[in-house]
Write a structure and sequence with these properties.
By secondary structure, the protein is of the alpha+beta class. The chain has two domains: about 130 residues, Jelly Rolls (Sandwich); about 80 residues, Arc Repressor Mutant, subunit A (Orthogonal Bundle). The protein contains seven helices and eleven strands. The strands form three sheets. The protein has a four-stranded antiparallel sheet with strand order 1-8-3-6. Strand 4 and strand 5 form a beta hairpin. It is elongated.
Length: about 220
């Protein structure tokens, strides 16, 4: 399980250290074939799962019974880490194997023991949870703006701070569209319109604020 040294939960712990930690706790490695249901939406999260091999997809079922893929998850990422603890610790989506998959299952009790044994593991776990909380907070903030232009304006002003100038976007248009809760063509169209109106100058991932006052006005639309 050398791949665990690349897992964010074990960041800063070498392979030997990870092996020593796992010797002290109960765990299981389970295999799944393509199409197997690994976890079902609404099911209680009893263990922390880490992908060792293959990939899985998170999917939701709409009212018509159609499966909608949320994301593909590759090794060595953990699954539903934010739902392991808490009062409503149920899996938010169905988790299905895309191909032959191997998962490390760490029972909740083992995760608690790892936190007590290793301050590095505990710090990594808390950082991941905090990052996910911050991401969701930003997502809610973006969704509070009714227009795409408002979302773009807020994002650019947040990155730029008080200084105007060239901004190199850290995310692709597809990633931004997902974060804003809009389609990629709609996002691209809004960026072009703001560019043509001399509010910003957009060239690929490079964006320059041309008129900060007009950009701020987009927040109120």
């Amino acid at each position: 399980m050398e791949i665990l040294s690349k897992c964010p939960l074990f960041k800063g712990i070498d392979y030997k250290g990870i092996s020593q930690l796992l010797e002290k706790i109960p765990f299981q490695v389970k295999k799944y074939e393509k199409g197997n249901m690994i976890a079902q939406s609404g099911e209680e999260c009893r263990s922390l799962m880490i992908i060792l091999k293959g990939s899985v997809k998170g999917e939701m079922i709409d009212y018509s019974g159609k499966a909608i893929k949320i994301e593909d998850i590759e090794p060595p990422k953990p699954l539903a880490i934010a739902f392991l603890f808490g009062e409503n610790n149920t899996c938010p989506v169905n988790v299905v194997a895309n191909n032959s998959v191997e998962l490390l299952h760490l029972p909740k009790k083992s995760v608690i023991e790892l936190m007590q044994i290793s301050s590095v593991f505990l710090n990594n776990f808390m950082n991941i949870i905090s990052s996910k909380t911050q991401f969701l907070s930003d997502k809610i903030r973006f969704l509070s703006f009714q227009t795409i232009r408002g979302k773009i304006a807020h994002y650019l002003l947040q990155i730029a701070g008080p200084v105007d100038g060239e901004i190199i976007l850290p995310k692709s248009q597809e990633e931004l569209a997902n974060m804003f809760g809009v389609t990629r063509p709609s996002l691209g169209r809004a960026l072009r319109d703001m560019h043509n109106e001399n509010i910003i100058e957009a060239k690929g991932k490079s964006v320059k604020i041309i008129n900060r006052n007009l950009l701020i006005k987009q927040l109120k639309k």
